[in-house]
Design brief:
2 domains, two-stranded antiparallel ribbon, 10 helices, mainly alpha
């Protein structure tokens, strides 16, 4: 009788232990594997897009606080590799790169149309009495160096290859071309900026053009410069590596989830 009771106790203990283990494994699937899979799949949805930063909140927590999740060394290593790539990727500010290119285009175009961007030069002395010169720029150039409409620049980058603004490039021949509306809007804004309710008076045009000054500035091929910038090329390369590492982790997580589902 005692042996029979002992047998039943051992049996119930094993069943309880197996159920507990199965429950823990299922919890891991629901609290870690599936959410992490969803997050990483979402990260690589816009495969060719580099305008927005990536925000892998769960991945970051898994990498930094691995003790909370009890992930395998192999999976943690993969997650850490991906997280390091994403950190470098997010450090490259494409809006800042684009803004600097726009400033350069404005400067060159303004000099072609109106002359120098230097409005005045003043001579001052430092605390030791040494003289030095300070260049004062024309208001539109000062403005565009500080003016960053992030939404317009974002729309410009997302609309690459799809210029919407139609402009006449040669009235005699009746030639028209398409340029980027966002660039026209940016240049128009700084050329027509008002100070204390008064619009800044532009110098007389030194070059005859068949379009508005802001259109002439926007006709420069922004994306030729943007896409050859080393930071942009690096960001595209990082995005490619992120997709490869992500797919590797996605495959790993799906295999783990399948194994759990088969056992339950």
């Amino acid at each position: 009788m005692l042996e029979w009771l002992k047998f039943l106790a051992d049996l119930f203990s094993k069943v309880f232990s197996n159920n507990k283990t199965s429950g823990m494994v299922n919890d891991k699937k629901d609290s870690l594997y599936q959410p992490l899979l969803n997050e990483i799949e979402e990260l690589i949805k816009g495969k060719g897009e580099i305008v927005y930063d990536l925000d892998p909140a769960l991945l970051e927590d898994v990498v930094i606080n691995e003790y909370k999740y009890g992930v395998s060394r192999k999976l943690h290593k993969k997650c850490k590799r991906l997280y390091i790539l994403i950190e470098e990727y997010n450090k490259i500010d494409v809006i800042s790169v684009a803004h600097n290119i726009i400033v350069g285009i404005f400067k060159r175009s303004y000099e072609e149309l109106y002359g120098s961007v230097i409005d005045d030069v003043s001579c001052v002395t430092d605390q030791h009495g040494n003289p030095f010169e300070i260049e004062h720029f024309v208001p539109p150039y000062e403005s565009i160096q500080q003016y960053v409409d992030k939404q317009l620049i974002t729309d410009l980058l997302k609309g690459e290859g799809m210029p919407e603004h139609n402009v006449c490039v040669d009235r005699n021949l009746g030639l028209y071309d398409y340029i980027y509306r966002e660039l026209v809007m940016i240049f128009h804004s700084v050329l027509n900026e008002e100070t204390n309710g008064r619009k800044h008076k532009l110098p007389k045009l030194q070059k005859e053009v068949s379009m508005q000054p802001e259109e002439y500035m926007a006709i420069n091929n922004f994306f030729d410069v943007y896409n050859t910038d080393w930071r942009i090329r690096r960001k595209y390369d990082l995005k490619k590596q992120i997709i490869e590492e992500s797919n590797c982790i996605i495959d790993d997580l799906k295999k783990r989830i399948r194994r759990i589902v088969k056992k339950t």
